[in-house]
């Protein structure tokens, strides 16, 4: 992953810990209404792909155990990882693109609701993404993938040569010449792997996205409701299709790009179609970017405006993230796919402990606050979820007290310690296992390996009945936590 050149080290801290009484009277542990559902607390586990599904995209026992473990910590809400809305093979990414997934998802919602004692609301993030190929071997690229045009052959001085020979001749010209000869898009495909973009109006399936996506999202939301989820989060963030529509790089000329109005059109149409399908008594929110953090990308000014459009359309909550784009991703090795969290924008999304003067903690706080203040000024009270480097009670409480957000998302801190909020609520915050922001987990995600946390994945490997990673070296879920004796209440346990 890209790191700021300053490489200043930051260390998380528990900061000031509240007593049990203070915690239970705090804003963080007060309820909030998200459209038709209420959260018991304002703690939120944002979507995180743990690579626990299978090639069929099904809910496996590992998926269930993973989320049950988060639920034992009783956060206000858990958002299940980005889940594909299409009925197409997508590797081991969870899917909801067909009714055959409903039974597995039902089991997941039942187990998670039970594991939290009914305290945690469960949402699922719905995602669409465009095709991306691995970075090709140059020889294979010239032999098979490059589309030969007359213009290219002319430029290379190969006009009239039979295709097979021309391909070989082009390959033999070598990298220096390739950059001059290939058009920008082909050069990029050779360097990074071919990646479809919403601007590719010459491709019929890309042109048709505005026709097909609203219904695909709506069908997925209906399945989520049938499976017992409390709501859905439309994934409008990072490097994926809907975020690409919102992006300032969206230049579509069919009314779905260019101006802000054009760029927000499909996200609003998707939302309205989902809403029509599930009705007003079902929670529908979206996750979007405060800033794309790429050259020429959307700015806070754009996202404040988008937030107003979403809120006016009646969305139940807005969850923010930042960065995480393909545009500035590092070049992958040959045979590897680009990963959208390797460039500067990726750093903004999941900042690490080696940072710049701003540091990794609360990196999206001010931008999110600015969005919330804009909404409030317009009399819109749509709850806003803020995520990014939050890891202790004091910080979360300060964000709520300042009116910077309504709900506090903690992704890696919840991965490091799924019980962190419960421990704090019980006045046992000194037992919280603090995330160190090393991004070991993110490195596993990048390799599509089962995600774990380095702070607990080698602990008690001989514990009876635990499931291990495919390499047999790591435990797949955090060890159980036993609360210390409490004087006025039986001690809860997070034993699975
Ligand atoms: C392993 C991993 C997987 C993630 N998967 C998703 C995802 O599926 N959808 C999403 O919107 N964000 C995803 N994220 C980003 C997080 O939700 C969150 O925005 C980011 O980690 C910053 O928050 P934090 O500082 O609290 O970790 C993922 C993060 C990690 C570490
Ligand atoms: S591996 Fe654990 S400690 Fe490191 S960033 Fe991920 S959650 Fe935090």
Provide structural commentary.
This protein has two domains: 8-131 and 210-446, Alpha-Beta Barrel (TIM Barrel); 138-192, no CATH class. α10 (209-226) packs parallel to α12. With 496 residues, it is an alpha/beta fold. The chain has helices at residues 20-24, 61-72, 102-115, 138-145, 150-155, 163-173, 175-181, 184-192, 204-207, 209-226, 241-246, 260-278, 300-313, 344-349, 365-377, 393-401, 412-416, 420-425, 440-446; strands spanning 8-9, 32-34, 37-39, 43-45, 77-84, 121-127, 231-236, 283-289, 317-321, 354-355, 384-387, 407-409. It is globular, with a radius of gyration of 23 Å. The model has no long low-confidence stretch (mean pLDDT 95). It is 36% helix and 11% strand. Strands 4-5-6-7-8-9-11-12 form an eight-stranded parallel beta barrel, surrounded by seven helices. It contains 19 helices and twelve strands. β4 (43-45), α2 and β5 form a beta-alpha-beta unit. The longest helix has 19 residues, at 260-278. The structure holds flavin mononucleotide (FMN) and iron/sulfur cluster. Iron/sulfur cluster binds next to α17 and α19.
């Amino acid at each position: 992953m890209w790191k700021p050149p300053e490489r200043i080290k930051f260390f998380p801290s528990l900061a000031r810990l509240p007593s049990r009484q203070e915690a239970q009277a705090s804003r963080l542990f007060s309820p909030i209404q998200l459209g038709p559902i209420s959260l018991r607390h304002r703690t939120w586990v944002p979507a995180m792909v743990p690579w626990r599904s299978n090639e069929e995209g099904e809910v496996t026992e590992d998926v269930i155990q993973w989320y049950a473990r988060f639920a034992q910590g009783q956060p206000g809400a858990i958002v299940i990882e980005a889940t594909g809305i299409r009925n197409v093979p997508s590797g081991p990414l969870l899917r909801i693109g067909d009714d055959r997934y409903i039974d597995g998802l039902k089991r997941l919602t039942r187990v998670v609701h039970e594991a939290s004692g009914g305290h945690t609301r469960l949402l699922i993030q719905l995602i669409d993404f465009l095709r991306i190929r691995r970075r090709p071997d140059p020889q294979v690229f010239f032999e098979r993938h490059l589309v030969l045009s007359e213009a290219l052959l002319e430029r290379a001085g190969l006009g009239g040569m039979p295709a097979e020979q021309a391909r070989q001749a082009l390959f033999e010209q070598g990298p220096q010449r390739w950059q001059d000869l290939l058009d920008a898009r082909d050069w990029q495909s050779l360097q990074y792997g071919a990646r479809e973009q919403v601007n590719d109006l010459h491709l019929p399936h890309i042109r048709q996205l505005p026709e097909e996506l609203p219904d695909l999202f709506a069908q997925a939301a209906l399945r989520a409701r049938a499976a017992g989820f409390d709501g859905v989060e439309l994934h409008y963030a990072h490097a994926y299709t809907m975020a690409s529509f919102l992006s300032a790089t969206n230049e579509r000329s069919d009314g779905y790009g260019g101006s802000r109005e054009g760029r927000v059109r499909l996200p609003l149409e998707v939302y309205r179609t989902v809403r029509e399908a599930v009705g007003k008594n079902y929670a529908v929110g979206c996750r979007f970017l405060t800033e794309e953090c790429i050259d020429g990308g959307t700015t806070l000014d754009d996202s404040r405006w988008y937030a107003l459009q979403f809120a006016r359309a009646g969305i139940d909550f807005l969850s923010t993230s930042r960065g995480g784009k393909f545009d500035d991703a590092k070049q992958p090795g040959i045979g590897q796919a680009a990963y959208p969290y390797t460039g500067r924008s990726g750093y903004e999304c999941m900042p690490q402990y080696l940072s710049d003067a701003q540091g990794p903690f609360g990196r999206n706080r001010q931008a999110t606050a600015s969005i919330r203040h804009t909404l409030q000024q317009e009399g819109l009270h749509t709850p806003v979820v803020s995520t990014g480097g939050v890891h202790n009670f004091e910080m979360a409480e300060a964000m709520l007290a300042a009116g910077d957000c309504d709900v506090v998302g903690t992704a890696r801190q919840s991965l490091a310690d799924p019980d962190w909020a419960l421990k704090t609520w019980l006045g046992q915050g000194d037992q919280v296992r603090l995330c160190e922001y090393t991004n070991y987990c993110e490195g596993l995600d990048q390799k599509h390996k089962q995600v774990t946390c380095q702070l607990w994945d080698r602990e008690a490997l001989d514990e009876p009945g635990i499931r291990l990673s495919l390499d047999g070296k790591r435990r797949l879920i955090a060890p159980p936590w036993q609360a210390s004796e409490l004087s006025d209440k039986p001690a809860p346990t997070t034993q699975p």
